[in-house]
Amino acid sequence: MAVRSQPTARQVRLGIELRKMREAAGLTAREAAERVGTTSAQMSHVEAGRTGVSEERLRGMATYYACLDDALIDELVAMAAERDKGWWEEHRGTLAHAALDLAELEHRSRRLRTFQGVYIPGLLQVENYTRALMAYGVPQPSTRQLDALVAFRMRRREVLEGESPPAYEAVVHEAALRTLVADREVARQQLAFVLEQGERSGITVRVVPFDAEGFGGVGTPVLYAYGPVPRLDTVHIDVPHGPILLDAESQLARYRVFLDKALAFSLSAERSQEFIHTIMRQL
């Protein structure tokens, strides 16, 4: 198979899981390559996501690695066999790879949980809010770049509108609801949209108010994406120098606890809706 110059995050993740499987079996890359009839260089490419792997070879690797997790193996086979090009591929070469990887992560997930302390979560943003937020960047994007970024984020929202959308739970701090990213009219539009989405089946919006005593997590924006099996969960963290994707079990467990704690400090879904209504009336 041809070597990819820029594998996607999902292709890299497949390779990572195969490497984890090999290491759990106590085999070096050279030993594993000899057992499955390939070279160390080819094994390195597969584990880095630079080269694909056939179902036959993947199942053979799982057998040699003595992996007994049939559900995981089946999902890795499905990942390796994916040939459909998602809508985000239309933007490859014009937008950052990280943006495309996030769209694919959302699309492939069974459930999404997020905490946002400063801004409205991306999948709940209206166009004017997104435009004002992205226009604030340094350096400021050109009009063409800004239009492309805004359109892409609006397209990402469609993941919650498909035939089988992932369950979506957003915990938002009051600071994000009150910050006037644009003007008051846009703020009202934005809060109205959050309320509308919060009333839809499968979507939950909870608010952590300013007066929640003991809450110290406002500065940590997190997206937790649940895969088809727990081993394939992913954490996405947005930081100033670019997003970080985490898949180590210790990190996954850490952020599950973090999100559970944020949820514990939040108002119920019903009270959160009332709370957002109150903020809207104060604008």
Automatic annotation (TrEMBL):
<dbReference type="GO" id="GO:0003677">
    <property type="term" value="F:DNA binding"/>
</dbReference>
<dbReference type="Pfam" id="PF13560">
    <property type="entry name" value="HTH_31"/>
</dbReference>
<protein>
    <submittedName>
        <fullName>Helix-turn-helix domain-containing protein</fullName>
    </submittedName>
</protein>
<dbReference type="InterPro" id="IPR010982">
    <property type="entry name" value="Lambda_DNA-bd_dom_sf"/>
</dbReference>
<dbReference type="InterPro" id="IPR043917">
    <property type="entry name" value="DUF5753"/>
</dbReference>
<dbReference type="InterPro" id="IPR001387">
    <property type="entry name" value="Cro/C1-type_HTH"/>
</dbReference>
<feature type="domain" description="HTH cro/C1-type">
    <location>
        <begin position="18"/>
        <end position="72"/>
    </location>
</feature>
<dbReference type="Pfam" id="PF19054">
    <property type="entry name" value="DUF5753"/>
</dbReference>
